[in-house]
């Protein structure tokens, strides 16, 4: 505050009639959690008698609210804003749904000369609030202005220098430094040294809705020191005119999407009115350009100022390019803004990669696909614009997926990799009893082809072969392929398809009776079952059989199924095997349509026997 006042003639008349009240008012929150009312010469609240909502709700004048900055709050109310106070019991949070006064519910957070430091969590909440588009107003004072004598009490100078320190740095880009305090001959001063630039912040604050600023007075104050290395967007609004001094009275900056304004003295906000006993306040708010400053700055922080939008383009690539996986694209952006304010640049390449540069910057795409590369320019007032290019990345190699239906094969089969621009031939072969019915490529039937060649491959493809049964065909299984050396039930891949051998194996000893290299040996109640369906039905089935080694006689029979093995019917009569020489048993079936067979040893004895050369004559 001040020890005395020099009365200065107001040079500016304000009209609060400018602008219409919004249908959904923006909300301004004044802090009262840091003992801002402490001491005899401070009452930095808008309505000490009623918090969080000042009362009456519709005041006729600022005198209806009791507090040292009630005029500021009243003027904001008349301008169409909703104003509230965060009371001493309030919580400083951001993104906490349990807190009705969470900072995310407000456009501007005003901290008027606090006397107690914020906690680490509170500092982070305030910083996040600003980053996400909030406006922060810091009202400071000179070092040593400690009005709260309780635990942790300190001056606003110390509180704000601690607040701007976040994660070991100072992302706000300014700090408070000593100025002139009580008893100093230079403690009472004025300044007209407003910035002469045309940035959105300068336009909104110095030449804003509530009038152009000409002169402000200060009484026992600190200064603000700018650090553009910490925040290149920080800028001075008002410089000192005290001879030999170099500090700033008012600064502003942007942090993320939000805006910050700081003033180094609380005196210009003091309206001098209070009914609280023991308070000695002094009006300065209505003098000179003080009121215009606080209203212009609050309006700017609330985002009411209209900042220009950058004009952006992409110079390189000039059009939407197509490359091969592993290749790179050189990107170059262009951007301008009408007020000449500082721009930051960023590329998002569409695959998770980014670059903070205008360009040129090279980016490689290792994976095939379609990507949208976005160039964005953002002003120091948070206005942004973007331009895009579509990057088509073809694979260095492509996959040809080959499949075959029942009744044949395709070679090669499965996923076949082919180099970009290469060729691949596929051969289609029907199984016994089948013919090729169609070869379908990428969903289009190409006819009953024996081969198909993909040439100059530049994309993934599919090829599928289909087969149909040929009338009157036959099937012969010699059991000479495949391996199964144990009696335990199991499947084995043979020349005609998959068979299941239960209590049976493929034998090739001298005691096994066989027409070729090996035959099936069965014991107990063993079974030999086709695991596939022969499509054309069967007229007859023949099968060679003999006793194994010196074992005794066995009986067996043939069964068939026309429903995929769900039920079985015996074909012909049971056969007795009594010779060690292979004999042929023939069964008359005369069943049309899909059919499969099962050979069963029926006597259940331990005697072993062999089967060989199973043959179906199609119906």
How would you portray this structure in words?
This protein is elongated. It is mainly beta. The chain has five helices and 40 strands. Helix 4 (200-206) crosses helix 5 (290-301).
Shape: elongated
Question: Biggest sheet: strands, sense, closure?
Answer: 10 strands, antiparallel
Number of strands: 40
Radius of gyration over all CA atoms, rounded: 45 Å
User: What structural class should be given to the helix and strand makeup?
Assistant: mainly beta
- Fraction of residues in helix: under 10%
Oligomer: single chain
Low-confidence stretches: 1-23
End-to-end C-alpha gap: 112 Å
Which whole number gives the mean pLDDT?
90
Number of helices in the DSSP assignment: 5
Question: Can you tag this structure with a few keywords?
Answer:
single chain; 619 residues; mainly beta; ten-stranded antiparallel β-sheet; eight-stranded mixed β-sheet; 40 strands
Gist?
This protein has 619 residues and is mostly beta strands.
Outline the secondary-structure elements.
Layout: E1 27-31, H1 70-78, E2 82-86, E3 108-112, H2 120-131, E4 135-139, H3 156-163, E5 174-180, E6 188-191, E7 193-194, H4 200-206, E8 207-208, E9 211-212, E10 216-219, E11 221-226, E12 235-239, E13 248-255, E14 258-263, H5 290-301, E15 311-316, E16 322-324, E17 328-336, E18 343-348, E19 354-355, E20 361-364, E21 369-379, E22 384-394, E23 397-404, E24 408-411, E25 414-419, E26 424-430, E27 434-441, E28 444-445, E29 451-454, E30 461-469, E31 474-477, E32 490-494, E33 497-507, E34 519-530, E35 538-547, E36 554-561, E37 569-577, E38 583-591, E39 596-601, E40 609-618
Parallel strand pairs: 1-2, 1-3, 3-4, 4-14, 16-22, 23-30
Antiparallel strand pairs: 5-11, 6-10, 7-12, 8-9, 12-13, 13-14, 15-17, 17-20, 18-19, 18-21, 21-22, 23-25, 24-26, 26-29, 27-28, 27-30, 31-40, 32-33, 33-34, 34-39, 34-40, 35-38, 35-40, 36-37, 36-39
